[in-house]
Specification:
about 30% strand; 3-stranded antiparallel β-sheet; alpha+beta
Length: about 70
Amino acid sequence: MQKIKSFTDGYINLPVRQLDNGSIQFDAEQAAIGVGISQIAKSGNEVVRWERVNNIYRPPEVGMQIKKR
């Protein structure tokens, strides 16, 4: 596994790592907030709109949903 790199634009800090097989892993929640697929809940917290994330980014052949761990 390679070293983790962080991509930052002042609003989001997105750690990304590349595995030995070439695939890339990142925090889907931070990425979704960074691209604006979130909303402010009644509690005042920023929450990700997971249904929208999955409609936009989930490849249909995978059959799995992207979600918070």
